[in-house]
Amino acid sequence: MYGTIRKGDMTIDELYRKILRIGRRANYRPKELRRKFLDALSLPWLEKVEDIGEHLPLNELSKKLYEIELC
Questions:
Q1: Distance of alpha carbon 13 from alpha carbon 33, whole angstroms
Q2: Among 54, 53, 58, which Cα is nearest to 23's?
Q3: Is 37 in contact with 29 (CB distance < 8 Å)?
Q4: Residues 39-61: what's their mean pLDDT?
């Protein structure tokens, strides 16, 4: 559980599920889950987050990013 998680070649959906799995084990609060998810994204993905709206709940945000990724 130590170290930094990066999206790398994972899909957005895989990254989201991995963050949730780690978050359950580490008892992360929703804000911590969101921060870990955003920290794992590269700059182009963070720009997409800004375009979509950072105010969305994490599950909706990840769903929208995954839809973009599939296009």
A1: 14
A2: 58
A3: no
A4: 94
- With residue 17 as reference, give the H or E element that holds it: helix 12-26
**Hey, where are the domains in the chain?**
12-70
Report whether 45 contacts 7 (CB < 8 A). Answer: yes
pTM for the model stands at 0.89
CA distance 40 to 16: 10
Measure the CA–CA gap between 30 and 3, rounded to whole angstroms. Answer: 19
For residues 36 and 22, the answer to whether their CB atoms sit within 8 Å is: yes
- Does residue 48 carry a pLDDT above 70? yes
How distant is the alpha carbon of residue 34 from its chain centre?
7
